[in-house]
Amino acid sequence: xxxxxxxxxxxxxxxxxxxxxxxxxxxxxxxxxxxxxxxxxxxxxxxxxxxxxxxxxxxxxxxxxxxxxxxxxxxxxxxxxxxxxxxxxxxxxxxxxxxxxxxxxxxxxxxxxxxxxxxxxxxxxxxxxxxxxxxxxxxxxxxxxxxxxxxxxxxxxxxxxxxxxxxxxxxxxxxxxxxxxxxxxxxxxxxxxxxxxxxxxxxxxxxxxxxxxxxxxxxxxxxxxxxxxxxxxxxxxxxxxxxxxxxxxxxxxxxxxxxxxxxxxxxxxxxxxxxxxxxxxxxxxxxxxxxxxxxxxxxxxxxxxxxxxxxxxxxxxxxxxxxxxxxxxxxx
Amino acid sequence: xxxxxxxxxxxxxxxxxxxxxxxxxxxxxxxxxxxxxxxxxxxxxxxxxxxxxxxxxxxxxxxxxxxxxxxxxxxxxxxxxxxxxxxxxxxxxxxxxxxxxxxxxxxxxxxxxxxxxxxxxxxxxxxxxxxxxxxxxxxxxxxxxxxxxxxxxxxxxxxxxxxxxxxxxxxxxxxxxxxxxxxxxxxxxxxxxxxxxxxxxxxxxxxxxxxxxxxxxxxxxxxxxxxxxxxxxxxxxxxxxxxxxxxxxxxxxxxxxxxxxxxxxxxxxxxxxxxxxxxxxxxxxxxxxxxxxxxxxxxxxxxxxxxxxxxxxxxxxxxxxxxxxxxxxxxx
DNA sequence: AATCAGCTTGAAACCGGTTTCAAAATAATT
DNA sequence: AATTATTTTGAAACCGGTTTCAAGCTGATT
Lengths: 332, 332
What we know:
The structure is a homodimer.
Chain A: H1 4-11, H2 15-23, H3 30-43, H4 49-56, E1 61-66, H5 72-87, E2 91-96, H6 101-113, E3 118-121, H7 129-134, E4 139-141, E5 152-156, H8 158-171, E6 177-181, H9 187-202, E7 208-211, H10 219-229, E8 235-237, H11 243-253, E9 263-268, H12 271-275, E10 282-284, H13 287-303, E11 311-314, E12 317-319
Parallel strand pairs in A: 1-2, 1-3, 3-4, 4-5, 5-11, 6-7, 6-8, 8-9, 9-10
Antiparallel strand pairs in A: 10-12
The structure holds a DNA duplex (30 and 30 nucleotides).
């Protein structure tokens, strides 16, 4: 790999001059510019962004830390982050923390060390708060309430999501909708639960729920438990879209039809939901916007230092497909 | 963030001594060791791995570049890489190249700049060969034939995979199995195709295939085309597990039952296949082993410089579930 | 007591870039 | 033509670490 010194030697100038040509940080004699450009061409020199960042404090890298790279919802957000990042000349690095505080700390350390321009994280464990506090980088959090510790929070309106999915089931005629409740340590889990309970109370419906993880390997057990505890359930609010595959499997084994015998509403709005059979009615989070906005906040932070938009709650939308059907017969 | 100089000052020694204490690279007076340790504790100093790597040429980072972070098969491999890496004190960085040569080049550049210890890549485009040639890092390729350009190739036995899936369909009584053929620029796509064609010829069966992408959003169109061109098809060899969701959807819309009217064999062996309804018969790639071995090769390369195991073809295995059934009735 | 070997140590050079600073070259002014 | 203002330039310092190298110290040997 050619280095700046090689280019300088070949062009017969100092490396300071080469640096100035590359960065346009000062005027350089036209003749020398030409020689430097040629030397860069010949040697195939590409400046080492990381070495450069030692001084500049910016490597044009955005870190994205997720609890699991098997979570398709978070990965779809990642795609959006990457797109927005790349359009602005940034790169995205995806890190799998595995809900392991040591890994989370290690990756935050690493991103800090490489002078990343910011971190987007779904911070599961509260015990990395110290790590985050010590981290001088802008941090956007995707799954917590706003706090002075973070630069910004980007989330969709989970309370609304809890509400509209429940309301929809009730409108469709369900009298015993059961919530697969996400972990209450996440604000998303808490807010959705609140929305669900509020709607139930407003309609004089008994709130029913069982606890579930977001990870897909918990789905089968959960669904079985759900059906045993609430055999009269006529609707399920799934913890997320992915889990619905497990739900289908269990229901099918027990001969219960969807939506005739029991209705289902998913959550997230990942592509997978549309491919399911029957296609999944679900609460669509604005995945693209969550990702792009998160990336934008970090990029703006670097370039303008504008500290606005601390808390961003984006609207969700109900997408009615085939797993719910109004008794009145208005199928979407 | 505390730096080595802060620690040195607090302990009343030079930063060289601090470095020696941290790395154990030379003997240091016990009294001073103690003072340094205390100073590290007090300041919370963590050495900057990246700055360190400028000199050491190793940052204990492994890069994993995939064409899409929405590909669950590659992500499951990523999980295995990460596990193996972390167990050995390495970190894994996941990069999404989007099949875009510019992004691929950018990420290879970045990993080189940060002195990563190696790159694991599913290299789609041949046009980044130059980038790879110029890259001084060990490179493990997951989806190409072996070549002197790469440190090693890790793949499963795609030819066998093509064979056993076809043989299984024939054993189950299929007379018109159709292959959804993966892109022929990938060795996996080519090898599976070869296996399929060979088995067909051995049994006097007419090979039938349509071309497909690995990405899931092509599945619906592909399946429709398949059924139109080969309405008499009684078996489908899916391009991968994920696509089977689309296949189910199309078949169900046309009232064709699985496996009674048409059988399906998937490919990859991702967790998703077991959650499908009906559960998917598929060719299991040794996902865990592919990932761990790839990581090991890079780690060994760093620590021992042993350049063995250039080409690694791992065995595949047929997992019979519910989408295939022998006419004789031996359901697994 | 003087010499020598062996250990411990900090100053300085290094990794690959960027930027400051002061000198050198050029342009403008009188 | 001489002086001054302006621009262009390279040497050196810097980013945060590691390592070399030679000096300082210790203890052993004669």
